[in-house]
Amino acid sequence: MVAGSASVQDEETTTLLGTGLKIIQARRGYRYSVDSILVAHAADPKPGERILDLGAGTGAVTLLLAAKAPACRIVGLEVQEAMADRARRAIRLNGCEGWVEIVTGDLRRPAASLARGAFDLVVSAPPYWPAGSGLISAVHEVAAAKHEILCTLEEVVGTAAYALAPRGRLWIIHHAARLMDLTAALETHGLSLIQLRPVHSRAEGPATFILARAERGGRPRLTLLPPLTLYSGPGRTFSPALQAIYAAFGRPPREASA
């Protein structure tokens, strides 16, 4: 989600999910993972809408949304310039400048970077854990992607509420252990939880992630969607459902690589 200070020599350019899109990532820094793919796939853009990727990092979700919704205007907001720069260069590399923009800005101060109520859809994969919990990576951009060092869940939800137009939608992925925190934040900021999908690493285990859709000003009418299982069989073999998600972006892999 956020950046370190890797030089160009410490970067590599790879293909994003076989879409033909290129992404620029630090070799030893934060790298996109399956949660970015899941939330980009879950998001429901409509032609002509304005979309905000909140905490864009190196642009994985932004680029996937660009591939999914070329008729939309997309803005990626990222606080750290090094990662925003990688995302910006990837946008140019992929020829998406006409409908995709990367903005350097702090989501904790949204008025400095975003117009109130300007977006129909906000998508986010924020850090999962409070700043003082667990083992924190010595690599700053990895630490800030996993822990709430630069923003909290409530700040992410608050900025989403600020940015959304009436009846606008938020799609967010978070750790299942933070479900109560997410629902409390949504209620505090006037967003109604509409859909919830538990995501399990394996069918027999507890949920690992939650995919949630909320609306600004919508009627509370929660639909609990069928669970999504990521892996099946030996090792980390992709489940048929996860293979279908990757295939929707252009590649049907068999084993986990992200």
CATH H level, superfamily name: Vaccinia Virus protein VP39
Spans of at least 5 consecutive residues whose pLDDT stays below 50 are 1-5, 252-258
Q: Strand fraction band?
A: 25-35%
Q: How many strands?
A: 11
CATH topology: Rossmann fold
User: Strand count, sense and closure of the main sheet?
Assistant: 9 strands, mixed
What class do helices, strands and sheet pairing give? alpha/beta
> Could you say how many structural domains there are in total?
1
**Order of H and E elements:** EEHEHEHEEHHEHEEEEH
Distance between the termini: 15 Å
Level-1 CATH class name:
Alpha Beta
Mean pLDDT: 90
Shape: globular
Cα Rg: 17 Å
Query: Helix count?
Result: 7
Q: Mind telling me which CATH architecture this is?
A: 3-Layer(aba) Sandwich
